[in-house]
From TrEMBL:
Protein name: Cbb3-type cytochrome c oxidase subunit
UniProt subcellular location: Cell inner membrane
Function in brief: C-type cytochrome. Part of the cbb3-type cytochrome c oxidase complex.
Native source organism of the sequence: Marilutibacter aestuarii
Main location, first listed in the record: membrane
Annotated residues for binding of heme c 2: M182, C231, C234, H235
One Pfam short name: Cytochrome_CBB3
Amino acid sequence: MSAGWSWYVIALIALNIFGCVWLLWWTGKRRPGDPAPTDTSHYWDGDLTEYNKPMPRWWINLFYITIVFAIGYLAYYPGLGNLPGIGNWTSAGKHQRDKERFDATLEETFRPYVGQRIDVIARDPTAVALGRSIFSNTCATCHGSSAQGAIGYPNLTDDIWHWGGSPERILETVMQGREGVMPEWGKVLTGMKGDNAVDYVIAYVRTLSEPASMQNNFMAAQGKPLYDGVCVACHGPDGKGNQALGAPDLTDGYWMYGTSKASLYQTIAHGRHGVMPAHGELLGETRSRLVAAYVWSLSHGDGDDADSGADAAAPGAR
């Protein structure tokens, strides 16, 4: 706070302390002409008499002791404006000391999992419970408490992975984040095939997960050349995507932004920009490994069926 506000606080505190001392002194003394403590002549119900007895001296002295304690407290701790106090105590310093103590406790808790493979950690129930706790505090905001995601946020409990589902790829996602960009293709497609071009591509993309629907499908037939000319670079000729780019598999029937025509039109014509923030700096490597192990366990059970190779790719793409 500014120097002016600091002096204002100091003056206000001094005024209050002085006021308390004066009030105790003024109300505790007897003056010439005051009635005797037992002589007020106020009676109720015939036998209840109001007296004017002062408070006991020991009680008054307790109040004085309280005031002295308050002055000492304000002198030791920074209670007088900007003055630091003779104890040099600060809330920031207290927070830092508490943080260091709790960090040391956490480090001891996480020590057994330092550098361990994700699929190995996923077999440890205690580690999975720790990972679940970290997930709830850090990741559930977007992916939900059950990790089943929402529109625009992937479901982490299935076997569909856009960026790869191997243990190390999941750890990479957690620590470094991901940024998936679907460009706007509306103007390009319209220039190639007219106003219905995006609808044609939507019709063809839908057939990738249901090949039988391609038969006698005029709109899908119109959309295939457009797909081959524009979309194939990322999603591949068979529509199975590219995990290196985060391009989703279009043949599995999973649509992160919804299956409606309006949603697909928005994706193709106007594009999408999805960002998974990097959490490596926030969580550190070991905690990132724990949360990655928890996420990996959601679609692999307890890991007993895990490939011993940490880079073995999971089916599909998230």
